[in-house]
Amino acid sequence: MGWLSLSNRRRPPLVDGLLILGACYTGPEVTQAGTETDSSAVTEPAADTDPGDSGESGGTNPEPSCGALPTVVSRPMRRLNPRQYQNTMRDLLGDPEFDAPYDDIEAIITQDGVREFRTGAELALEHIDRWSDGLVPCDLSGPADASCAPTVLETFAARAFRRPLSDEEHAWLLSIYSDAESAGGFRSGMEALLGSILQAPAFVYVIETGTPLDEDPSYLALDGHSLASRLSYFLWDTMPDDALFDAASAGALATPDGLRAEVLRMLADPRTKDKLANVSQSWFHLDGTQEKPGLFDIDKDADLFPEFSFSMAFEMQREFDALIERTLFDTGDFGALFSTRDAYVNASLAELYGVPGPVDDSWEWVELDESQRAGVLTRAAFLSTYASSQVQSPIRRGVFVFENLLCGHLGDPPPNASDVPVDGTTPDGGQITVREEVELVTGGADCSGCHVIINNIGFTFEHYDALGRWQETELASGLDIDASGSLFGSDVDGPLDDALELSQRLAQSERLQACFVEQWFAEALGSALDESESCSMHHAVERFAEHGNVHDLLAAIATSDTFRFIKLEGGE
Amino acid sequence: MSSLKKHSGRRGFLRTAVGTAIALPALEFTHDKAWAGGSGPNLRFLTVFSHGGTISNQDKTSKHDGTGAAQGEDLWRPSDPTSSTLTLGPIHEPLQPWVDKLTLLESVDNKTGIAQGEYGGGHGYSNVTSLTAANVEFHGSGPVAGGPSIDEVLARRLSATQPVPFERMHLMVHGHNYGSPYFRDANQRVAGERNPGAAFATFFDGVSGNAPDPETLRRNGVRRSVLSGLQDEYARVRMSVSAQDSHTIEAHLDHLASLEAQLDNTIVCEPPGGIPGNEGSTTEVAVLHAQLIVAALRCGLTNVANLEIGDFITPWTAIGNPTGVDLGHALHHLSRDVGATGPRAADHADWREEMLQNRQWRMGVVAKILEGLDDPNFLEGGNTLLDNSLMLITSEFSAGAKHLAYNQPVLLAGRAGGQLQGGQYIDYNKFAASNPFTTQYESDESTHNLFVSVLQMFGETDTSFGSNDAVHNGPLPGLV
């Protein structure tokens, strides 16, 4: 049985639909008012030509851009993920040192997760002296202060809930304070109040509200505060800042100009840089998965790679993050991610790349050899993660490119697929190249269906050893390198000389861009796009393709129907 | 600005509870007295889930004899499979002191994994069904179980009759794996705590050899206020969200109630010493986890304890890592190639010894738990904790290289309060009755039946468990 045939148990990606079905968004849009619109431009802002621009300011619902009703499906309520929780607590408390052990990533919260929220709240209260001045305008260990709790509700709780409190919430929190204060004194009352705020559903879950559309009340236009939270968790992985709160309270996010202004402001914020770096690390699985080791799990053969140490893995990630910042954050140039020879290195990385670099502990930007390096796929972080302890791994590298960059689907390996590392050693003790052994062990009928794709991508990286160093001849075998390969199953198919040509080809791939778009939509929405939401997807893909600019893409997502509207479950 | 106001109901009750917290009776740890005071011994259930399978020659309807490319030994089997009296095989040598309290069951299939998985099993399918026997569901990426695992079912039921602060304890010696096999309910996977320090902080929080100090009592009072209040608010929110989200909020509410129950069951018991805050090496973690499990059961903190062991290589054993593989699962895969005609036949001896010492190391961890539970100086009504416990030691595969859910490894330890005789070996392979060494294989028994047996050993009356993939309902024949 071929490996590819197993993929039908999983939802096919919209990337496939994009290439096969064609886009539903085919040009300028016409709003219900009959106004022809363009899409919102970030690289070249057009003040009044956004999707959803009805020509009106605040007070009316934004209009869908893909038809009378927005293309959006019902999604489950989200819970703050560990990074979002950590960042939110730090920003809410004004305590950059806050560090809670919350790590629950299960879809439905576990008991450990609930306990960790309690631990986080108690940990925060232990260090209340580190909170921002005025956040709690009383001394919890001092005499009772009847004005403190109501003030905390008006300021602290509203910020924690990321919106004004409802009357029910107000009464609920005051009753907790009142009862605990009566039973245990002022300090207990305040601790119970603050602890409840920090574990409340409105804090740990992102509960969204909006205004029903006249055409179909099961569709809601997100209200300003819900939209503000969506934006801040999408672009920053934290709660809205004061400016975003103010914009939401003033109704500014309900207008295209207001929404675009906030998106532009947020894209320039360093928190977007952090978000881009984090998402990129996950994209490249540098943090590993349950089944595959990440950059910090790798170990290299001490005889072959004496320069490798655990700290070198951190250095590789630092270079990776700098590359993301220079391309995706500073300029937004997606293509440069796969072509640039700029590298941020210290002495050991400069030596790894074979270029002059710092001789002390400093870091600096250098230019790598154009005959050896082009973009992120030719850098140490990727190459050393996707390798064994001794030799390069064309299979792992090939699978990554096909599945993670091109959204290809290989399915699970069959049970006779071995993960014993290939090292070029033959059963009789002879030596062949890694490439030759891979061809040998994957050449059978059961394997070749997938491995013709995997191997021919992975082989293009044969010039990079298990640490990412350039090798003219294979380090382990001393034999000549053959880095030729080819791309199958993509929109940029064809023979390849090496990884440089692969990177160049990928930089032109619409499929790669669409795959990237799909991942960012999932990041924005908390779950993958549904096929019925292809209009938003196509719209974003087209915007992204115009300049290949990531800023355009993020703005297109943030202004899409799928982002601005929600659908109630079952049409309720 | 609103004025302070009080309301009745749960808050009113709470205020009393906080005020009287100091007077709440602590469940003093008096194991012998507690046992003597009830209608029977308190029973405990433990699982040790060893990821990645064992050293097995199992295929689907046959077994390899070693003459082909695949190796042909089953080192999980007893050394003498012709006898119903258990004689431990090589992997289980570290458990020899407790052989009379062990029961080895062979040829128990994971019929759900076989029926619903790829290739008669597969990684994801075998994992999520091995302890649940439940239908496989999809809610995004990868398969999940459509029901709870056996530990969860027992934990809930036991906590009703044997109140404890924690329904279950779940620790993990971290390593390569394809997902936790433990599920709280459909699509609610439960992961184990990897860090012994964090586990200690959770389970022994507030536990000491003396009655709680005033500050602990005050803190617990605040916790009660918060937990009670949160339950009110989550219940209110549950009414305003969709059915799908309501399910999420209900789970949150359940967990809040569990935390509240933990406060209600204050334990006075001397906690274990020397648990560092940092995670430490794999060998250190394994020992500490075993220590924590024993201490938690002795202190009466829980009725159910789970230990997961990841599928990692063990270079610290005497043989080291002669095969050079860097992944436990890759070590398994070598089993397909080290048979007489396999491409790695020359590596057979190294592979066998490395694999064996790897699995013996895991059994060494089990031995530490058994040693703690079988302490003759810590008796309940004349029995050790092990006598009053049942431990299931298992994995998702027999032969990891084959990814098969056939012949799931099943070793039981303890006597479940006298329900289990111990020292037994039962092989349910239909062909084994006439020839224990046969390479033919077929079994009508499934983990469905195993879990029914487990429940019945704990006094439950269930006759079925999990999906409809079992050949028959009821318990495993001849076990109890």
The CATH C-level class name of the largest domain in chain B? Alpha Beta
Number of helices of chain A: 23
* CATH domain fold name of the largest domain in chain B: Alkaline Phosphatase, subunit A
The greatest interface here is: A-B, 75 and 82 residues
Q: What's the average pLDDT of chain A?
A: 87
- Main beta-sheet annotation of chain B: 7 strands, mixed
Envelope shape of chain B: globular
Q: What is the spatial order of strands in the main beta sheet of chain A?
A: 5-6-11
Q: How many individual β-strands of chain B?
A: 15
Taken together, the total number of domains of chain B comes to 2
Q: Strands across the major sheet of chain B, in which order?
A: 6-10-2-13-14-3-15
The proportion of strand residues of chain B reads: 5-15%
What's the average pLDDT of chain B? 89
What separation lies between the terminal Cα atoms of chain A?
44 Å
Helix content of chain A: 40-55%
Radius of gyration of chain B: 24 Å
Q: Enumerate the spans of chain A where pLDDT stays under 50 for 5 or more consecutive residues.
A: 1-13, 17-59
Structural class of chain A: mainly alpha
Walkthrough of the structure:
The complex is a heterodimer of chains A (572) and B (480). Chain A has 572 residues and is mostly helical. In chain A, 45% of the residues lie in helices and 6% in strands. Chain A is built from 23 helices and eleven strands. In chain A, the strands form five sheets. Chain A has a three-stranded antiparallel beta sheet. The two termini of chain A are 44 Å apart. Mean pLDDT of chain A is 87; it is low at 1-13 and 17-59. With 480 residues, chain B is α/β, with parallel strands linked by helices. Chain B folds into two domains: 8-28 and 213-265, no CATH class; 40-207 and 274-457, Alkaline Phosphatase, subunit A (3-Layer(aba) Sandwich), CATH 3.40.720. In chain B, a hairpin with a 4-residue loop joins strand 4 (136-138) and strand 5 (143-145). Chain B is globular and about 70 Å long. Chain B starts with 9 loop residues before the first helix and ends in a 23-residue tail after the last helix. At the A-B interface, helix 3, helix 4, helix 5 and helix 6 of A face helix 1, strand 8, helix 7, helix 8 and helix 10 of B.
